[in-house]
Design a protein that fits this description.
The protein has two helices and no strands. It has helices at residues 6-16, 23-57. By secondary structure, it is mainly alpha-helical.
């Protein structure tokens, strides 16, 4: 029989006593991940908007 991995052991420990789970730690990690995803999406949107505006400005018939 193979020895369970560290991740499996940790999950089994959490399931054995769910009251020991640090909910605040999980919440903080989840909040950080959501913030990073939001920042990434905003960066992509800004980049695409900039490229679109650049394309429009470079058109022949565009006049300021």
């Amino acid at each position: 029989m193979t020895k369970p991995s560290k991740e499996v052991e940790k999950i089994e420990q959490l399931l054995a006593d769910p009251w020991t789970v640090n909910i605040q730690g999980i919440w903080d990690k989840q909040h950080i991940i959501q913030t990073l995803i939001s920042a990434s999406c905003l960066t992509r949107y800004t980049y695409l908007l900039d490229k679109r505006q650049e394309k429009i400005i470079n058109e022949k018939h565009f006049v300021i």
